[in-house]
Amino acid sequence: MQSSESGSTSxxxxxxxxxxxxxxxxxxxxxxxxxxxxxxxxxxxGLLRYWTLxxxxxxxxxxxxxxxxxxxxxxxxSPYEVPGYYYPTAFAYFGHWLVENLxxxxxxxxxxxxNYLALxxxxxxxxxxxxxxxDVRGARGARGARGARGARGARGARTVRxxxxxxxxFAGLLLVLSPGIKMGMYVGNLSFLAIGLALLxxxxxxxxxxxxxxxxxxSVALKPIAAAIFPLLVLTPPTGKTxxxxxxxxxxxxxxxxxxxxxxxxxxxLGQSVERIGLIRTWSLYRLxxxxxxxxxxxxxxxxxxxxxLIAGRWARASRPGWLALATTASVLATPLIWAHTLIIVFxxxxxxxxxxxxxxxxxxxxxxxxxEPILITLGCGVVLFYNAGAIDRLPLxxxxxxxxxxxxxxxxxxxxxxxxxxxx
Length: 425
Prior knowledge:
The protein is mainly α.
């Protein structure tokens, strides 16, 4: 009896990692050839789906804005003279350097290639949190299957291949069906590159903080979608390897300040007016605040969302996947303009929530309600990915406000679900 109580106490002090953490460990232990093969398969799927947009000779809508800003830098003028250029000055200078060395067409193709590669990385990193329905064998099984000759080794190899195929299928479906990816390709927006760098930094902050910090800094210097992550990394890191996460946050935040302040014109970015564009085709909290005449600016919104995320993080003491879900959701909700392609950063939340619901339903005690949870989670993921904020433009104030709350609340609920069940489920 005493032994049982002791074991229970020990378990509370050091809870065993849940399925999501185990799934990620198994994913990271795959041979590099399987990672490369997955990227090649996804690249082929994407080329078949988006070849006309990727190979278009003319600049897309946002590419025209970028290239105009690059040209103004070459003329010694501010890039913020370009309507719609809301990005840090460092990106304009980098683009100007690319144009000088590769020409306009070469710079355009180089940015498209980087953006596309970052999208594939985002998809594969998100798929890392997808659990096979029957628990996938651990990294030991993945490594041991190569040399095992018995039945156990063969089963382990089949399980690893099955899990790999599931993850590729999950990422491929997102690639083909996501309206955010389609929209990002159509307008030529570089959100994919910023998001890919941010998720790389978040994924490896605990293992390689000296690499994760600069990756996060480059992401925010390109497009500040993930700016809310730095205080969360420093003040509320996930459980385990807190020192490494804090180092990544401090290093990334310091490098971000350098990249922001080392170039002229940066403070003009803070003065850019987004009120008009912030009232159309976006379901951001900034739009909601403007609609209700609350007088909340972008920096105030960022502060409020980060404070709420810090409180939630300290209260939940989230595991690594739960913390990642919280950080990416906070980043989106703190962004004043949430377009469909901005939501690519919450792909890990979609993977985690869907995977947890699928894992949990066969084990429910009340079989008559067993399907309720995965159905609700699927509907929630659908709302986040497919909600058309442009369809609610210029509706009556109360109706529009309520409809703006739906996707934000749904994403928050998905994140709370992941935080609650990711540790020991």
